[in-house]
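Internal QA ticket QA-208
Title: Verify multi-chain structure generation after dependency bump
Assignee: T.L.

Test input:
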Amino acid sequence: MVNGQQETIIYLDPNQSVEDRVKDLMNRMSLEEKVYQMNQFVGLDHMRKAEKDLTEEELHSNDAQGFYKGLFSEDVAEMTRRGEIGSFLHVVTDRESNLLQNLAAESRLKIPLLIGIDAIHGNALVSGTTVYPSPITLASTWSDSYLETIGIQTAREMRATGSQWTFTPNIDVLRDPRWGRVGETFGEDHFLVGNLGAAMIRGLQQNDFTGNQKVIACAKHMIAGGEPINGLNASPMDVSIRTLKEVHLKPYKKAIDEGVYSIMAAHNELNGVPCHMDSSLMTDLFRNKWGFQGFFVSDWMDIERIETLHHVANSLKEASYLAVSAGMDMHMHGPKFPEAVVALVEEGKLPIQRVNEACEKILTAKFKLGLFENRTVDIKSIPDKVFTPEHQQVALETARKGIVLLKNEGLLPLEKTISNKRILVTGPNANNQTILGDWHSPQPDEKVITIFEGLKTVGSKCGYDLEFFDSGENIRKIKDNTIAAAANKAKDVDYVVLVVGDNAMRYRWKDKTAGENMGRAALDLAGKQLDLVKAIEATGTPIIIVLVNHRPISEPWLHDHIPSIVEAWGPGSLGGQAVAEIIFGQVNPSGKLPLTIARDVGQLRMIYNHKPSAYFHKYAFEKIEPLYPFGFGLSFTNFEYSKPKLSSTMINSNEIVSVTVSVTNTGNYDGDEVVQMYIRDQVSSVTRPVKELKGYKRIFLKKGETKEVFFDIDKSTLAFYDINMKYCVEPGDFTIMVGSSSDDRDLKSTKLTVKNRMDVND
Ligand code: BGC
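Actual output:
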């Protein structure tokens, strides 16, 4: 009270500007309170689960569990009540989110919590929500607009259940498919990855994420985690500065231009420097040069690992100094970080401005998200907001467009029949939730259409009898007698749909074969899956292979012996329906591979945009061609391309040249086609890739229809880092290629000439 009048507390007044509210609140905060805002903990239920399920020894060795030595869930609840925690992650129920927010509301300054979650293809860690196809499936749609829509819908489902910050998009550029995290990427091409990532950010944040229907996005993982030296997650990345700039950093520029409000550092080191202490990236490039306005967050316990794994600090305090002074703003997760940072400031080692900057950015997010006014969620209304018919429709549509037909020798689609043909559906992924990809929790059965369920529903309407044989879903433990039994069943039916692949169900730590921390040193079908395929093939019954997988499968035997192969990736909640609609011809497949599928792990690194000398020599025995090229995917119809035409054969500074190509559907089905444009710089001061993707458009063509497709080329399309690392376009000729995949046989080309050198901003 001032002179009998109630003091107006600016930061609690929603009518004040966000800047004024932040300023007012910052003035009221102690150093400790500011640093607490920079610290995160895992949710109480997550901790309780670890406390209950794991032995003391396991708790210490299993670092994927939220466990803090000597600190229990009740202690963390009390800390929340005292305002000592700024953010939580792995809060997977609305009830817990409300509980934590209510505890925070009891603290001195009543600052709400920012609750983060890995909602990477829908809010799939929360039970009952829409699980969209996995990112690699979404990338196979080659369609930015779907990503934006999914971002908008995911944000709504997250806000409904009490999270406001998603650790997505993963814009790692995949350069080694042994890596377990392939399924959560958008593939191997930085142009596609950057565009899809930006579209996702657009949808999630919808400009500046103000209000209670939007969330903060998080571009991750900075940087280069997609080319681990041995294929294993978090292993060192040894990448040239050129590759870093030409490949890995490109999607980050797009994310920052899109206004992404948080960026997560990578587990790995880059050229000897742990990414969590890389000031040249965080501060010099991202913040100072590219104008990143949001905050950096560490990955899971990675500030600690500067000391414990990388051994470039002697203590957590030193590690915290290295990270925060390099630009890190939030610690994921656990105790001791706040004490370290407070001590560093008090000792004069870390400037208080660094803490102020971090805290201001985090508070700004909380104000914009409306959390001071609406911190809890209305639990009763959740069923009306998640898994809505509208969201299901988008999940289904993106699965239909993201599934890739890899091979079809006249078997598909299966026509309607009146003779009650029989189909056996079997294989480890035929009837389970691995279609939901990584980063999902078990979903209610009634909200998931497995491959078998989809086939049964759609197939019965087409006159088929569908039966399921359970060959065991644990890929690591397929038994010989089950293989024999499956083959026995296969003898008596007209077709077999065999669903094989890998398993990324993170809650089945012991069974899974893909996903985070589950790299492989091979790319074949794991376990005895190929034996199962061979035993069924030996019966002579025609087989349709459906791959449900989260990294590419290099198994040439399948291609050589099986008539039809459908790459379903992780098609999401309604994935079984989408697969069935393709098999029975109600949907014409149109997905295209966002990565190269090698024939064998020994061919790695195999990427479409390799350098000219990569295949100058051959292997002694093995082929140098991939099993399936980047951009490849079949349709039930055929598309014919004209030679591309240019609006001008010459390009000068600030000009735009347009490329036109006519595409005709010459087959018997209506269908979508993804038209792709690549370029090649013919002669340059440093070597350039044989092809670079520079444009793509998904179009729909009725049978017999022709459409013209346009792409623009300007100097930014042609730019690269020259021999002096200057970003520019050098004079000379470029080949412009347009077609249906990156394979030369699928491309038609023309020539564009650059008269004078042009400098370009990077
Ligand atoms: C992963 C991140 C994820 C985080 C929180 C880490 O292990 O690398 O991508 O966002 O966990 O779940």
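Spot checks passed. The chain has 24 helices and 28 strands.
Status: verified.
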